[in-house]
């Protein structure tokens, strides 16, 4: 029989397609090389207490991915032995747990390999997973029997009520349930896409769970405190209801208050920031003040106790003053001289002179020991200075003179310092030295009968020629200082 060229070409194409399909069926679907010779696979034996529904050619998964099939299931004297045919090229840790799971509602079982130690050596041909590293789910028949017995124990009317209420609860929610199912499906697909990240999360969740276990006492204490709070809320239900009822009105008033304060509130908050910085700097001083405040209040209360319920009660506190006038005498060193001081009767307010005025005697002087010169520097521990600028500079306090002298010029100095004292870094005053200041004039009232008076230093002096009937003194005697008692 003679065949045309066209028929020969068609037969050749059919033969090639048939051979290709047959080859794909043998190697891709039937996997005959694996079935006959085990090519590309290796065998691992899993010891189980019972079959649990597994069967030959069932799937084997590792971290949710199929890695082989169940090649054989046989009985042993102690249970069941399953031979797994696993794909080569996929490293599976040898320290693992083999669990039998159900893949569908009709009981399609598979074996899931879950690693216990990811750093253990990989499985190899002939390895055995012992029985204590395997788990089998409960028998579905036993579960159905228990469910049936549970349903029979429930009265029919109650079961009907539960079904009816369930219908009322979910009736008409088909679109919402559909969206929930679709969302769950999308979530499962995304979870499979990011399987590595999820697996890493599960593997590293143990330290977090361990911290929860370690802090169980704290959690229990928190739960007890929460129970106390809820009990208080329940016992004060009327008050809580009042707060909820009146809370909207209070919130509206608060909002209106903030609306009224809106123009000035930012300025107030900005000022509070500055005050906060100062409070942080003087935190130790504020703490000391708060420590001494209760004691001070107790002292103030003790002042009024002796006069309580007495004839002097209406007069207020009962005090006993022992005045020590001019002891110690006032410090005039570092202040403006008498000729430049303003009378208290003046009502104008000219600009104050540039610089600082304070008692400028040595820091160890017994006069004005609580003066500005002895204030501790908050930002420089161990240093004392009268101003913040001097505290934060490299300059140290230098007294105006060596001590207190009320006679003559109390501001006499050889250091050339300005009066008032200029802050550190200020340009020097004009001239090389302080201007000459005439000595101040001291005025004191005296007793005309005896000629005694109290000097600016607080001491009592007697000048006999001031008394009545005294003989006038010569001009030489007037230059001599008086004698003190």
What would your notes on this structure say?
The protein is an alpha/beta fold and 485 residues long. Helix content is 39%, strand content 12%. It has helices at 5-29, 32-37, 140-153, 156-170, 174-193, 195-203, 205-214, 216-235, 237-261, 265-281, 283-304, 388-391, 475-478, and strands at residues 41-48, 59-62, 65-75, 80-87, 96-102, 109-115, 128-129, 134-135, 452-454, 460-462, 483-484. The strands form 2 sheets. An 8-stranded mixed beta sheet has the order 7-1-4-3-2-6-5-8, with no helix packed on it. The longest helix has 25 residues, at 5-29.
Structural descriptors:
485 residues, 11 strands, single chain, 12% strand, 13 helices, three-stranded antiparallel beta sheet, elongated, alpha/beta
Strand content: 5-15%
How many DSSP helices? Answer: 13
Count the E strands: 11
Q: Which consecutive residue ranges, at least 5 long each, have pLDDT under 50?
A: 432-438
- What is the residue-mean pLDDT, rounded to a whole number? 81
Head-to-tail CA distance between termini: 165 Å
Looking at the structure, what is the overall shape? elongated
Walk across the major sheet and give the strand order. 7-1-4-3-2-6-5-8
Q: What is the H/E order?
A: HHEEEEEEEEHHHHHHHHHHEEHE
Query: Structural class from helices and strands?
Result: alpha/beta
- Biggest sheet descriptor: 8 strands, mixed
**Helicity, in percent?**
25-40%
Radius of gyration: 51 Å
């Amino acid at each position: 029989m003679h065949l045309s060229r066209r028929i020969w070409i068609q037969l050749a194409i059919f033969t090639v397609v048939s051979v290709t399909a047959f080859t794909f069926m043998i190697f891709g679907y039937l996997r005959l090389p694996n079935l006959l010779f085990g090519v590309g696979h290796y065998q691992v034996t899993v010891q189980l207490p019972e079959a649990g529904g597994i069967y030959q050619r069932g799937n084997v998964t590792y971290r949710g991915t199929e890695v082989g099939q169940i090649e054989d299931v046989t009985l042993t004297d102690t249970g069941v032995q399953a031979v797994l045919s696993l794909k080569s090229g996929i490293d599976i840790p040898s320290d693992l747990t083999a669990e039998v799971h159900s893949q569908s509602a009709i009981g399609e079982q598979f074996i899931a390999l879950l690693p216990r130690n990811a750093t253990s050596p990989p499985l190899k041909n002939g390895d055995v997973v012992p029985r204590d590293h395997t788990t089998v789910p409960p028998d579905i028949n036993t579960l159905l029997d228990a469910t049936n017995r549970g349903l029979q124990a429930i009265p029919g009317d109650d079961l009907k009520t539960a079904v009816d209420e369930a219908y009322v609860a979910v009736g008409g929610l088909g679109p919402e349930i559909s969206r929930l199912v679709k969302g769950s499906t999308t979530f499962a697909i995304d979870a499979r896409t990011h399987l590595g990240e999820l697996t890493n999360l599960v593997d590293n969740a143990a330290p977090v769970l361990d911290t929860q276990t370690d802090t169980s006492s704290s959690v229990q204490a928190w739960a007890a405190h929460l129970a106390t709070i809820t009990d208080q809320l329940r016992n004060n239900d009327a008050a809580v209801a009042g707060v909820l009822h009146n809370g909207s009105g209070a919130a509206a008033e608060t909002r209106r208050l903030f609306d009224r304060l809106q123009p000035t509130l930012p300025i107030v908050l900005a000022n509070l920031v500055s005050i906060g910085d100062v409070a942080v700097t003087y935190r130790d001083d504020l703490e000391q003040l708060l420590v001494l405040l209760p004691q001070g209040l107790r002292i103030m209360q003790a002042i009024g106790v002796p006069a309580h319920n007495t004839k002097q009660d209406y007069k207020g506190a009962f005090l006993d003053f022992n005045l020590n006038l001019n002891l110690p005498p006032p410090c005039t060193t570092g202040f403006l001289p008498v000729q430049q001081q303003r009378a208290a009767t003046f009502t104008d307010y000219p600009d104050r002179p540039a610089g600082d005025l304070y008692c400028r005697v040595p820091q160890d002087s017994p006069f004005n020991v609580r003066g500005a010169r002895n204030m501790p520097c908050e930002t420089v521990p161990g240093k004392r200075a009268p101003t913040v600028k001097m505290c934060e500079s490299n300059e140290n306090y230098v007294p105006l003179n060596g001590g207190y002298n009320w006679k003559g010029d109390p501001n006499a100095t050889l250091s050339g310092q300005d009066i008032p004292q200029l802050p550190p870094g200020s340009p020097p005053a004009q001239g090389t030295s302080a201007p000459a200041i005439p000595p101040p004039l001291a005025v004191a009232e005296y007793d005309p009968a005896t000629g005694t008076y109290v000097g600016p230093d607080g001491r009592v002096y007697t000048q006999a020629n001031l008394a009545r009937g005294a003989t006038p003194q010569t001009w030489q005697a007037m230059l001599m200082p008086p004698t003190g008692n």
